[in-house]
Amino acid sequence: MTWRSCSPKSGSFIRVRGVEVPHGFGTKDFALEALRRLLPGRKPQELGQVHGNKVLILRKGAPLPQGLPPSDGAVTDRGDVILIVRTADCLPVLLWDPETGAVGIAHAGWRGILLGVLREAIKAMREAFLCDPERIRVAIGPAIKRCCYRVGEEVSSAFLAKFGPQVIERRKGGTFLDLALSAKIELESMGVERIEEIDLCTFCHGDLFHSFRRSGTERRQISFIAGGRDVHPG
Ligand SMILES: [Zn+2]
């Protein structure tokens, strides 16, 4: 099965080929209201996104949390919710197990990656829904890439120690971090084999994405995934 991204020009969100549940990485003009219209009858579940490593498990029949839970990830096997994260430069990460239909989402900046939020998301899918990591497909969305993500000495040393020299690039202008590659290394260490990275830098592509580093904006783009039915709108 192919597992490649589609062109962002095809709509206001980017889909990943081969993922058979509703999902997308929204560009900057894609609003929550449009998502509600696209997937009526499902409740959008947003997260507090506190740069931690907690992953919320939403089981069938259980009450949904009130307000924003203090989590940076969520997993579910229920078809009546849409998992959502909002990002500007951090990684939006979508997870899907074609066997069980369980899905997951995570918001991962440098703090979340170092704290193991993706490890926790894989663990939650495995423990709650018996997903085999070898089956789980992961898509890493638009984020600030190594072309633009300059970091200080403290962050670069921590990533160097945890993921090795390939995630750090020292060049004219400073030290740059490859956050997506760090995420891939973490996921592969958990047994995940199918990982797709959308090769678009939020800092470089001001026409498509908000970037906190570029403009200091408060605005974020929406990424989403929903389990259950195997049809995708659009
Ligand atoms: Zn860039």
Give structural notes.
This protein is α+β, with helices and mostly antiparallel strands and 234 residues long. It has a single domain (12-145, 179-225), classed as CNF1/YfiH-like putative cysteine hydrolases. Helices cover 22% and strands 25% of the residues. The chain is built from 6 helices and 14 strands. It has helices at residues 32-38, 110-115, 117-129, 153-163, 179-189, 212-215; strands at 13-14, 23-26, 43-45, 55-58, 73-76, 81-87, 91-96, 103-108, 137-140, 150-151, 168-171, 174-177, 194-197, 221-225. The strands form 3 sheets. A 6-stranded mixed beta sheet has the order 4-5-8-7-9-13. A 5-stranded mixed beta sheet has the order 1-2-14-6-3, with no helix packed on it. It is globular, with a radius of gyration of 17 Å. Residues 145, 147-148, 201, 203-204 line the site of zinc ion.
Helix/strand layout:
Elements: E1 13-14, E2 23-26, H1 32-38, E3 43-45, E4 55-58, E5 73-76, E6 81-87, E7 91-96, E8 103-108, H2 110-115, H3 117-129, E9 137-140, E10 150-151, H4 153-163, E11 168-171, E12 174-177, H5 179-189, E13 194-197, H6 212-215, E14 221-225
Question: In a nutshell, what does this entry contain?
Answer:
With 234 residues, the protein is of the alpha+beta class. The chain has helices at residues 32-38, 110-115, 117-129, 153-163, 179-189, 212-215, and strands at 13-14, 23-26, 43-45, 55-58, 73-76, 81-87, 91-96, 103-108, 137-140, 150-151, 168-171, 174-177, 194-197, 221-225.
